[in-house]
Amino acid sequence: MSNFQLLTIDGDPIFRLGLRVAIEQYPDLEVVAELSRGTEAWRILEARSIGSGAAKKPADLGILTVETLNLRSPPTEALAFCRELKSLYPNLPLLLLGGPLTPELWAEVQAAGANGYCPKGRDISLIIEAIRAVASGRTYWATDAAANSEIELNAAVVQTVENSAAIAEKNADNPTVDTPVHKKMLAYFCLSGLREIDATLAVVQADLEEIRAAAPTDLPSILDGVVLSGRRRELLAARWLVSQLLFEGKGEKAEGRRQKAEGIKQRIEGRRQKEEMRGENLLNNSQLQLANSQVSAEDLAVATNWQNSLFDSVAAKLQFELVNLTGLPLEIDILRSTKKRELMSSILRKLKDLLEELRFSQVQQTQLSQKMPAILRDLWEATIIDFFGRYYTLPTGENLVFDGSQTSLKVGESQEGSAAYLLAGSGVEVVPMLLADADVVAAQILEKIPMTVDFFAHLLFEIPLTVDNISCVAGSPEAMQRAEALLENLAIQVASGVVQPLLNNLANIEEIKQIFYDGKLISTREIERFRNDLSWRYSWDRYFVEPKAIFESRFWLFVLGDSGIKRISIYAPRNLELAQLSGWQLALTLLLETRDAIAPRVRAVISLLGAGVVYVLTQVIGRGIGLIGRGIIQGIGNSLQDSKFGKNG
Question: What distance in Å separates the CA atoms of residue 487 and residue 347, rounded to the nearest whole number?
């Protein structure tokens, strides 16, 4: 085995020493120089390159560390050093060590000329594998999709917070905006804490993924996995708490800005009335339009503020486990955890875009009820295109039959006509096939999502939400809590609608299984069992759960908790739906009403009968048995006494 001479380049001498000690355990590797970025590094590199002759190669491999966990700015200094190093010594392979990479940083690292990349938190054996691969002339690019997706989500949250902080600093000279010093300090320390938590979370996630990939059977490795899982949950909980501290006070600021906007409106209205009364035209049409546009812009800024907090709160919950804890099967249960997060994040993004488009189109509040089916369908279609890719095509190396005659998950509807798509090496476009089930998904899922009109009116026009018969203004704690529950339920239901046509048409395609499905649900038997469970759930909901919920004036919502997806119920008047029930659903409500009417009387009669039975058993039969037993005992005692006296006589 050939020996490789290595150069370690890092500004931390302790890390260089640790890396050198670890490398010395392998006889085929030798650290010939330890460098820190600076003039000394260039001097040592020049000296070693002169000794290498015409190859101008200071060593077999250079190991350069890059700090990639700073979510605010890219590691420009380290990458600039990498570019300069490759320009001077193009024959020197470079292996970069650092944290998990986002796609943007990934492209920058490759553009800098690196030949490989490996996360610092990996096991030393994997780092040695990367060193040998790059030193041998190959490339090594370690991937960690789970950690990268979490880093991207955390970066988005931090970027949102920092944008808010930047806007606050930009408006510091405005006398109407007064940010206390202690809140600025709190935001600074919270941002620093978020970056530290993100760094530790990335390392823990990488270690946990390695243990899961190894599928250990020995007790120490299993215990390590349990400990890492617990630590990951603690870090996620800590990050959520810090995020809540960052967003604290936004409601107060929104209220202040809302009052300011109302004051501006009142002043403009007062001026307009005075002008009409006096007959003076102090404002021309252009000035009036300008004033109205300023008020509208202020209202939009206030609305955007609390709505961003709402979406950020739901996005933060996506970092927790998305395990279904309801006991009811959901379509998204078949997806692996990373795909669930990706799908839910896509829904939140498309919902934001849809809200902006509705504002731009100047949709009126009275039009929402009529347009809501089309709005939900547009959200569903946009999510499918974003999640799968508009032109995603299943390649077919051999003839495959996509059977459209599979049992539909929609209750009461059978797919007539066995539409089979025979593919001979051409492939099939996935998105058009899924969008063809729009009517089925709309009837089964989208049109049954509760309180969508109220929710969109709240987001678009800040119409107060009614919580337990109490009107709650936009931005208030009660309204935020209810809006968050409605948003989470909307996202989960739309996600189920995205997966349903996939199960209807492409459930058993191997490529779909490998990319999207959870490892426990990839066999044909498990998939069919899962589909049957969904069909039974639809039937049960249609004939029992939904009529009962209408009769009890409540909606069932799926929400995100700290440990998974849960189900809650909220009060809402549903008298109109109750009046429209017919058939079995109406019969069920009548049975419930009859039960409620006779149940107290039946319970009273049963209670009375039970009391009578208890009285008879205890007072009559019990006493009788007691008297009989006492007589028997007395008789035995008398006989024993008589026999004793007889012997003595």
Answer: 10
Reading phi first (left if > 0) and then psi (alpha if -120 to 50, else beta), residue 517 is in beta
550 in Cβ contact with 578 (< 8 Å): yes
Pairwise CA distance, residues 184 & 162, whole Å: 11
Instruction: List 568's β-bridge partners, or say none.
Output: 557
CB 196 within 8 A of CB 134: no
Asked if the model's pLDDT at residue 156 lies above 60, the reply is no
Confidence of residue 590 (pLDDT cuts 50, 70, 90): confident
Let me know the angle formed at the C-alpha of 489 by 485 and 495, rounded to the nearest 5 degrees: 150
In contact, 495 and 347? CB cutoff 8 Å:
yes
Residue 52 to residue 46: CA distance in whole angstroms? 10
Flag whether pLDDT at 161 surpasses 50. Answer: no
Whole-number Å distance between alpha carbons of 331 and 521: 12
In this prediction, residue 189 carries a pLDDT of 66
Question: 57-61, 242-246, 293-297, 632-636 — which one is most confidently predicted on average?
Answer: 632-636
Neighbours of 300 (CB within 10 A): 12
The helix (H) or strand (E) run that includes residue 377 is helix 368-388
Query: Which of 41, 33, 36 minimizes the C-alpha distance to 11?
Result: 36
How many whole angstroms from its chain centre is CA 232? 15
Can you tell me the distance from the alpha carbon of 62 to that of 134, in angstroms, rounded to the nearest whole number? 9
Q: What is the average pLDDT score of the chain?
A: 75
Question: pLDDT confidence of 500, banded at 50, 70, 90?
Answer: very high
| Contact indicator for 517, 335 with CB cutoff of 8 Å | yes
Instruction: Quickly state the pLDDT bin for 436 (edges 50, 70, 90).
Output: very high
Residue 557 pairs in a beta bridge with 568
Half-sphere exposure of 156 (CA within 13 A, CB side): 19
pLDDT value for 152: 46
Angle at 337 between CA 331 and CA 343, to 5 degrees: 65
Q: Is 185 exposed, middle or buried (0-12, 13-18, 19+ CB in 10 A)?
A: exposed
- What is the pLDDT, as a whole number, of residue 120? 77
**Which residue did the predictor score with more confidence, 140 or 284?**
140
Q: CA 130, CA 646: separation in Å to the nearest integer?
A: 108
Buried/exposed code over 144-156 (b: 16+ C-beta within 10 A; e: otherwise): bebbbbbbbbbbe
Q: How far is CA 183 from CA 62, 152, 247, 248, 259, in A?
A: 45, 26, 11, 9, 21
DSSP letter string, 131-180? HHHHHTT--EE---HHHHHHHHHHHHHHHHHHHHHHHHHHTTT-TT----
Q: What angle is formed at CA 406 by the lines to CA 401 and CA 412, rounded to 5 degrees?
A: 160
Q: pLDDT tens-digit profile of 274-283?
A: 545 544 443 3
Is residue 591 classed exposed, middle or buried when 0-12, 13-18 and 19+ CB atoms within 10 A define those classes?
exposed
Task: Name the burial class of residue 83, with classes exposed (0-12), middle (13-18) and buried (19+) by CB atoms within 10 angstroms of its CB.
Answer: middle
Q: Residue 466's closest CA among 355, 570, 376?
A: 570
